[in-house]
Amino acid sequence: MNIKTxxxxxxxxxxxxxxxxxxxEKITEHLTxxxxxxxxxxxxxxxxxxxxxxxxxxxxxxxxxxxxxxTYKVNGETYKNVVCxxxxxxxxxxxxxxxxxxxxxxQEGADDNASGVAGILELARMLHGKTLSRPxxxxxxxxxxxxxxxxxQMGSYIHAESLMKNNTPVYGMVALEMIGYFSDESGSQxxxxxxxxxxxxxxxxxxxxxxxxxxxEFVKNFSSWFDNAETIKTxxxxxxxxxxxxxxxxxxxxxxxxxxAMMVTNTAFYRNKNYHQTTDTMETLDINRMSKVIxxxxxxxxxxxxxxxxxxxxxxxxxxx
Length: 321
Prior knowledge:
The protein is of the alpha/beta class. Helices cover about 40% and strands about 20% of the residues. It is built from ten helices and eight strands. It has helices at about 5-15, 25-35, 45-65, 110-125, 155-165, 195-200, 215-230, 250-255, 285-305, 310-320; strands at about 65-75, 75-85, 95-100, 135-140, 170-175, 205-210, 235-240, 260-265. An eight-stranded mixed sheet has the order 1-2-4-3-5-8-6-7, with helices on both faces. Strand 3 (about 95-100), helix 4 and strand 4 form a beta-alpha-beta unit.
């Protein structure tokens, strides 16, 4: 056994612990600003939708190299994505992380999807001043919810299409979709097909990395580094897009444009029965575990172009055995 192999095995047996970078106080602050508005942030309530967009812009502006609104018209009304970028001077394909900020109807939408938005707002703070290996674009999307879901009016469709039209090289995209609700009760986790209970268990205490069959380098590396963080119990699924729920978020539009993309989620309505209900409030969220998800996303982003010694070591041990 050579020194390199031995060092990798030691790394596996005695792994470093990822230090928490996210702030539960900041997460709570963001959730409050997004959900406790004087009205609900859906497509028919533009003043509140714009109020939340302006809040996101103000937070991004504190930390990013550049921040802007990406505006477009739907039925005569102006809607806006909020975009910020880090590492703008790096000449490599960009990494996109996004979450939608609109809700379905008259409800606060804490898990769906203020949790994802709070995640990218914290990522902005955490990425500020960090040396990155490639440019990172954080995007808060509008109009993900019905009646616009699966239409070209989705904010993520507008953003993904703009990257394609501008010939912007894209390494990959990750969507943060409902990352705040967890349960330790047996039977709290559901699935689109029953056999999945045998694989993933009946308890909704994990975060799921959702990938389409035939995924590329970005999804492989992001997933590897997310798992490497070991901050939160994590499960992975690779499936054809036809499995119900696999494409239930903004990553679907990056697939449409031919980009490598994935979703980080608590499985939405398969676990959280507050989905699209007035009971989806921030008081139902597990802020601590949510922060650990954000830490893992951050860990994956900043390490995405490095060799993952833990994965190399596992393969070496398997080969040796």
